[in-house]
């Protein structure tokens, strides 16, 4: 059973009849990708059904969005008529997108005084991945600060019980904001879900703040994970995915048994990648990582690479650009070379046909 089949089967029950579970949490974590632009005025709240109906008129005919947003939009339409989700109340939508930051958040009250705060993440487009890489040397990031401010601003003087989550970078934001929110907000947090998102730098991973939040925390990642392996991580629940490539990052491929994800072990490939990623991040200084990110962005733009999957198809072109570039020092070239080879190894199982099929599915939003 996949996410949409779960919605078909369990959408007939309210949250009073069947309490929120980890599958609902992952659904809410992914819902923040949906484009809510133009739907909310300041601090206005609407039911999920109302939001879904307005969204169709605003966005259906102009959906040129990035891939994760398409999936979020599709998920919103699938949820809007479901008994379980349609009366959830959405509020406090925030979104910032510019050259410095990409940050999104929305609050979902699924039961009276019980709120799921969902932080938006990134997808397979490299513009979002660059910010994931920044986590390897920068703490806190601007997005971290925004996430902490979001919790403090809206829930310091609220009587709501809180669950905080997010997918990809959003999962990291959920964890960090829950660690660093003020003590009043932290006392209201019942659970934190990091859905295949990066972990923490060593200092934060070994901190008292993480130790305190750890008992409420769950890191869910697929058996073929890449993003979820970044940095230091534990409290991992590995779940079965039907896709062996980078597309396993998308929750639509995760298998569900009843009200829980099908538990399994990390694939051999991901175990190897986990070791390689740790070694890769550990062997370079912060200055090297900063230079690497700047130059990687430059090279991918020159190669007109927008998606991580396109690296495999254009690897010869990329290596030529690296070799010929006079703007990049030799050490930085070596770092980028090693990283590109690691990524190619990770996406080796993702076929171009599967990628095209996945993109085409983003435009199908009708319910069964």
Short description:
By secondary structure, the protein is α/β, with parallel strands linked by helices.
Spell out the blueprint of helices and strands:
Blueprint: H1 3-10, H2 22-31, E1 46-47, H3 48-59, H4 67-79, E2 89-97, E3 102-111, E4 114-119, H5 126-134, H6 142-155, E5 161-167, H7 169-180, H8 183-188, E6 189-195, H9 202-205, H10 208-213, E7 217-222, E8 236-239, E9 256-257, E10 260-261, H11 268-282, H12 286-302, H13 310-313, H14 315-324, H15 330-346, H16 352-361
Parallel strand pairs: 4-5, 5-6, 6-7, 7-8
Antiparallel strand pairs: 1-2, 2-3, 3-4, 9-10
Helix pairs in contact: 3-4, 5-12, 6-7, 11-15, 12-15, 14-15
Mean pLDDT: 86
Kindly provide the name of the CATH class: Alpha Beta
Q: Please provide the count of β strands.
A: 10
Helix percentage: 40-55%
- First and last CA, distance: 15 Å
Please write the string of helix (H) and strand (E) elements.
HHEHHEEEHHEHHEHHEEEEHHHHHH
Strand order of the largest sheet: 1-2-3-4-5-6-7-8
Structural class label: alpha/beta
User: Number of domains in the coordinates?
Assistant: 1
Radius of gyration: 20 Å
The number of helical runs is 16
Q: For the report, how would you describe the main beta sheet?
A: 8 strands, mixed
Strand % is: 5-15%
Q: What is the CATH third-level topology name?
A: Rossmann fold
What ranges have pLDDT less than 50 throughout 5 or more consecutive residues? 353-368
Polypeptide structure, described:
The chain is an alpha/beta fold and 368 residues long. The protein has one domain (3-266): Rossmann fold, CATH 3.40.50. Helices cover 45% and strands 15% of the residues. The strands form two sheets. An eight-stranded mixed β-sheet has the order 1-2-3-4-5-6-7-8, sandwiched between helices. Helix 14 packs antiparallel against helix 15 (330-346). It starts with a helix and ends in a 7-residue tail after the last helix. Mean pLDDT is 86; it is low at 353-368.
